[in-house]
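Model it.
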Amino acid sequence: MTRILISLFTFLLLSASPVTAAGCPPVVTGNGPSLHPEGLTYDPVRHRFLVGSVTHGTVSRVASDGKAHTLVDDQWLITTMGLAVDPHRGRVLVTNADLGRADRSKPETTRAFAGLGVYDLRTGKPIHRVTLATGPGHFANDVALAPDGTAYVTDSISGTVYRVTPDGTATTLVQHPDLAQPTTGGWGLNGIVHLGDKLVAALSGARKLAVIPLGDPHHVTTISAPIGAPDGLLALDRNRILLVDNTAANRVVEVHTKDRWQTVEIVREVKWPDKAPTTLTKTPCGAYAVAGRLDVLLAGGRSDEFVLRRV
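Modeled.
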């Protein structure tokens, strides 16, 4: 009887989990009504991917069959970009912006809003709605989470990194001209990761990485390397980062530093079969990247399909 119960428990666990140590699908074909997710994270408690939505401003769980089930549906959210799970505090953190392609887009908020929503990881109920900036020239893109629950949010236009404490108090960590949107086009700050005593962020338009010491955040340095236009970042450890290059090269790149992020070298490059990948997340099976068919959306179309693919 004990053996039967253990086998039943194992079966239920594996069948409920799209990503476990025992079952690691190389590809999960997601399906949700014109979700177009840009952000991706993983809930290690429920063994579910979580995706945002450029169009609907929601957060959805993705089950083993790829079907998206809405977790967060808050009218305050316009476009949900970067996501981070805080399993120790039972929270999911969501950046809120307006790309002008969402159901709730308005002229006065398009590229003119930056916010961070904090929601219960189990129920999706709101815990904090934090408005970081309003007015022309603001776009909250990604969020990195420190072990103490502090969140760091990038603003892709103004070149600002905001700091939000676990109680929802927001301050400006740094605003720097090297982090702002270039006049030549492309985003400024994009993806961001927390690496102990520093933050490393993507500068898409400048095609560089930015290093921001938390002890002296105004001492911003940049790293040049042949990494294309970096979008989402994923820290593998304090010396290695995976990044998405969503130029025409369409690839995922692993970079390594030997000098505490003064320079980097490319140690791995994976050509990506899906168009327009954006962000990455870590799971028990390794890293996955999302391609939310943003190429279709930005061309004026809609798609119900998105792809989660293991790196």
